Predict the 3D structure of the following.
Amino acid sequence: MKAWLSLTLLFFCISSLAQEKKFTDIELKKILRTQKSGLIYVWSPGMPLSEKGLVEAEKLCAQNKINFVALSDPQSNLFIKDASTYDDLRKQSLAHPMASMQLQELGTLDHFPAMIFFKDGKIVKPILHGYESIEGMKIFLNTYLNSEKLK
């Protein structure tokens, strides 16, 4: 019985990894090269405010036609109880854990959420850590991306 359970768990882990597409420096360079500006939002299911901010940031960016990339904490699997309860945005970002060394060197994994703004092929520094209200995110987006007044 134990051998069967071990094989089942091993199969589940391998299946999960096969569906995962890590966000590496290659993907980061591609986004910086092909997108004029936007927001990369890294969240963790272990931090409820980062999860709340994920939905708010995505909505704000969609309303204002700002490119939005949602990535998850590479250790997300330690916090997930039941991923089937997640909406599509959370499920998709969980399938894209942050694995960029360039973003990691900037301290992206120090605290969640982390918001990384980019413009004209470059990351706008500093990156921001911690939950921000929608109004706070509007201020940062306006400041960092020199956007017109956001909705």
